[in-house]
Specification:
InterPro entries: BCSC_C. This protein is an alpha+beta fold and 941 residues long. Helix content is 42%, strand content 25%.
Length: 941
């Protein structure tokens, strides 16, 4: 057995339940047959807001461009390294050559100074120094001094010996530091000690004049983790070491040693920028070094980061100046990551101009065309051989196919859209990427079961709002929202939100506004709960739900109190058929959740003018001079409860139970009541009702008349009914109604009666602007009573009861739009009526004891039959207007002219106060008959 879900809902009675189905059946206040057809139709307002297709195919071109820029930078760094190495070698060679020249010059000078003088020949010593044979030089110098005690070595010779020893110490310290093992801190520290000592002892040998040793020493210190000491050496070069090319070379070497992004490097660049004087070549290299450093950071940054965007904007003039195609392409991808497609397009176009053969920029332009859904532009780019041959274009071809599929879906060419999705999958799109649009195509094709299965699988895989929307819509189209609503997945957002929203929309369409509002609030609560965990998802969900949630329902469940009056008049002879009714009334309405309670009190003034003794009364002994006032005061109290059951397997069943009491007049006190139930289905709607209500045709039938001189009364007729109504949707614009009713009539000292009524109608909806519906169509009414009770003598009921009444005509029903500041409804019918009443005998029941002696057979009181035919017309107009957020005013007018029934008219005026603010007026606020300000409590449905 399927589980049953019971939910409390609105009690609008079936008039509201069938507001778009069976119509507003306009019962007159004084007759049992309605001449207004029950057909009306409104197009169901469920709007399908198709979720966007997920046509995004992941594109990795941006990452490849980053790598390309980084490769270009590495290439330039290698070029710089080679250039700086060459500069270092040139510096070393120049110094070596300078030393040799100094040695030769010193030796020659010494030779010239001693030429022609007796003394020691020091040329062998110079030769040993030139050969850097220092040990042999020291030995030879010692022997020479011993041999020539009075000889003093030349200063130049000794100075050269000191210089070479210094060079030797420095070279050994550099070599030892360079041979240090990585990872061995103790060994590294020991290896660096000689280097630090020579730097301290010979500072001039690690300065601008010996920049080759400065570069080498700083490099070794940095490599050993002595960055601060390396920075000290580098700093000594700036800002006045000449030539300027050596300073620029120092920057490039420091960049490699200290790190391009280090704070030390920033200091060196700041020193050079602040005080360095550079020649043109050095200036060009200095600017390029700064550009490459910034470009390195840009290539390393995440494209969608603020850092990447700032660097792109900062480097834009230099990228253009260098015509750097790779950097321009990277700038385009960064702009694209920041959703600046116009700027990205400019960069891609520049890059294409500077590097026509490169496809990275073309792929960027392709992505922009696809994001703009420029299918023709994307096809043009894909036609280029380089782009077509690139493996990365395959993913974009898949995306292009998905865009075609999306466009075809919007054109409602669902079969072609499905073929395009198949093509997208051949190009690499995954079923997850094509699944949503495939589901919408299946939905649009009417293949709801397949669509539902696909959306359900996607939703279970990943709880996304768009798949929840598709699943709910598909099940709604299948008529299975109740079944979906009890599934475990539908017990939480976002699926629960869509189920509630669609149910709310359906209930709104069916005029069940209070429960529609309850479900609307439930859907909105789902959005609020989602916002606690994911604000972005909640925002998207709320935006999507707006297309399904009814509008202007705020305050629809507000308690209210209404007061007003009804004035009605039924033409006829005084004291008999004629009745004028004035009925001030108060009605209160309140809610408990979605259950509705109504309490109505009416003070009735019934005026039949003067009652006289007719021929039958005189014949049984009532004085001919008898006359009495036909004015009677009475009170009427009704209470009703409206609710519904949601049976999952059967759908929503609405019901109403009402109980009423009337006191006053000859009949005293009477209790009445009724039950009704109904439902809307895919094919239309139905309702059934049973009730016991007063017959309000005349004072006799309603409250009864006293028989003078007897202490008894007759009349006070009640109508016990069973009825069914149905509406069938024959097509999009045509609908048909069929209503049938059986009734039994009983009263005090009145002959019983039975009747059958049948109403058939068809209506065409003209869909006029500003109207909720506007229908016109044929109508047929048939009414039959067992006997004629249209007389007023003792034992007869005094109500219209033909043995045959047939009406055929044209009927129209209309109502202005729901949810506005005012609303107007109308029921109009015009046609031909033919009726016949059989003859009836008088005194059909026994006389009171006071007249027991009367010879009934001697009383000639038979009533002959009658035939009537002619045009009939029935007009009913109702209006409600919103005066403020808490006040409404309403009115109803009703006119019915039918052969054999004379003339009937009635009017109603009321005001209504709400205890909470109301946003708008709805059809449930309209009066439905001339006794009730809104809704129905005491009529068949």
């Amino acid at each position: 057995m399927k589980p049953v879900r019971v939910r409390s809902t609105i009690g609008l009675g079936l008039a509201a339940l069938l507001g778009t189905g069976c119509g507003l059946i306009a019962q007159t206040s004084l007759a049992q047959q309605s001449n207004v057809s029950g057909v009306q139709r409104q197009a169901q307002g469920i709007s399908v807001q198709r979720g966007d297709a997920d046509a995004q195919i992941t594109q990795r071109s941006g990452e490849q461009v980053q790598r390309k820029v980084q490769q270009d930078l590495l290439r330039r760094q290698r070029d710089v390294q080679a250039a700086t190495l060459a500069a270092r070698q040139r510096a070393q060679y120049a110094l070596q050559r300078e030393n040799v020249q100094q040695q030769v010059a010193g030796a020659d000078a010494n030779l010239q100074a001693n030429q022609g003088k007796p003394g020691v020949d020091d040329r062998p010593l110079w030769n040993l120094l030139r050969a850097k044979r220092l040990t042999q030089f020291d030995q030879q110098l010692l022997r020479t001094r011993q041999q020539f005690p009075d000889w003093a070595p030349p200063e130049g010779l000794l100075a050269e010996r000191v210089r070479q020893q210094q060079d030797l110490d420095i070279d050994q310290a550099l070599a030892k530091a360079g041979n240090a093992k990585a990872g061995d801190a103790a060994a590294s520290s020991a290896s660096l000690e000689p280097l630090l000592q020579v730097i301290q002892h010979y500072p001039e040998q690690f300065s601008c004049t010996r920049i080759d040793r400065l570069w080498r020493g700083a490099e070794l210190l940095a490599k050993a983790g002595r960055g601060d000491q390396a920075l000290t050496l580098y700093r000594s070069v700036f800002p006045d070491c000449a030539p300027s090319g050596n300073r620029i070379a120092t920057l490039y070497m420091a960049q490699q040693s200290l790190g391009a992004d280090s704070a030390a490097m920033e200091q060196l660049i700041a020193l050079e920028a602040a005080g360095g004087k550079r020649d043109a070549d050095s200036e060009t290299k200095f600017v390029r070094l700064q550009y490459d450093r910034s470009l390195t950071r840009m290539a390393a940054a995440t494209p969608d980061s603020d850092t990447a965007l700032q660097l792109t904007q900062q480097l834009a003039p230099q990228i253009e100046n260098y015509r750097d195609g790779a950097a321009a392409t990277l700038s385009g991808w960064i702009m694209l990551a920041h959703r600046r497609s116009d700027e990205a397009e400019i960069w891609f176009q520049r890059a294409s101009g500077w590097m026509p053969a490169a496809v990275d920029a073309q792929l960027g332009l392709l992505q922009i065309r696809l994001e703009r859904k420029d299918i023709a532009g994307a096809e043009q780019l894909l036609a280029q051989p380089g782009v077509a041959a690139d493996p990365r274009a395959r993913a974009q071809r898949a995306r292009l196919s998905m865009l075609r599929a999306d466009e075809l879906n919007l054109q409602k060419d669902y079969a072609a859209s499905l073929r395009a999705l198949d093509e997208a999958e051949r190009f690499g799109a995954t079923p997850q990427q094509t699944g949503q649009l495939r589901g919408w195509n299946l939905y649009g094709s009417g293949r709801y079961e397949q669509a539902s299965a696909l959306f359900a699988a996607q939703y279970r895989s990943k709880h996304e709002a768009r798949t929840a929307e598709g699943w709910a819509l598909s099940e709604s189209a299948r008529g299975r929202l109740p079944e979906l609503s009890i599934m475990p997945e539908a017990q939480e957002a976002p699926l629960q939100a869509y189920v509630s929203a669609l149910e709310s929309q359906q209930l709104y369409y069916r005029k069940q506004f209070i429960e529609a509002y309850a479900l609307q609030k439930q859907a909105e609560q789902n959005v609020t709960q989602t916002a606690l965990s994911d604000g972005v998802a909640a925002q998207e969900l709320g935006k999507s739900l707006q297309s399904y949630l009814p509008k202007n329902l705020k305050g629809i469940d507000s308690a209210s109190i209404s007061t007003g009056f009804t004035l009605s008049n039924h033409a006829g002879a005084n004291g008999q058929g004629h009745l004028e009714t004035l009925a001030p009334a108060v009605r209160a309405e309140w809610m408990d959740g979605t259950r509705q309670y109504n309490l109505r009190l009416r003070q009735l003034t019934l005026n039949a003018e003067t009652i006289r003794a007719d021929q039958v009364a005189q014949a049984i002994g009532v004085p001919a001079s008898y006359q009495a006032s036909g004015r009677v005061n009475a009170q009427e109290l009704w209470f009703s409860v409206d609710d519904s059951l949601w049976l999952t397997s059967l759908g929503r069943i609405s019901w109403q139970a009402a109980l009423g009491a009337t006191d006053g007049g000859a009949g005293g006190s009477d209790v009445y009541g009724q039950l009704s139930a109904g439902q809307q289905t895919a094919w239309g709607s139905w309702s059934a009702y049973a009730g016991s209500n007063p017959v309000r045709d005349s004072l006799l039938s309603w409250r009864g008349l006293s028989l003078p001189g007897s202490g008894d009364y007759w009349g006070d007729v009640r109508r016990n009914t069973l009825g069914v109504r149905s509406l069938m949707q024959l097509s999009k614009d045509w609908s048909m109604s069929a209503n049938a009713e059986l009734a039994g009539f009983s009263g005090h000292n009145v002959q019983s009666n039975r009747s059958v009524a049948l109403d058939l109608g068809a209506g065409y909806n003209f869909k006029l602007a500003g109207f909720d519906y506007f229908n016109i169509g044929p109508a047929l009414h048939y009414l039959h009573f067992d006997n004629n009770q249209n007389q007023y003598s003792w034992g007869l009921g005094g109500y219209y009861s033909p043995q045959r009444s047939l009406s055929t005509g044209i009927a129209s029903q209309f109502m202005t739009l729901e949810g506005q500041s005012s609303q107007l409804s109308g029921n109009l019918e015009l046609g031909w009526n033919s009726s016949g009443e059989s003859a009836s005998s008088c005194l059909p029941v026994g006389l009171p004891a006071a007249f027991a002696s009367v010879n009934r057979a001697a009383v000639n009181c038979g009533y002959s039959g009658s035939r009537d035919s002619g045009m009939y017309a029935h007009v009913q107009l109702a209006m409600v207007k919103r005066l403020s957020e808490r006040w409404q005013i309403g009115a109803l007018g009703d006119l019915n002219v039918t052969p054999g029934r004379d003339r009937q008219y009635a009017g109603m005026l009321f005001v209504r106060y709400f205890f909470s603010a109301r946003d708008a007026v709805f059809s449930r606020d309209l009066p439905k008959n001339t006794r009730d300000f809104y809704g129905q409590m005491d009529d068949g449905r």
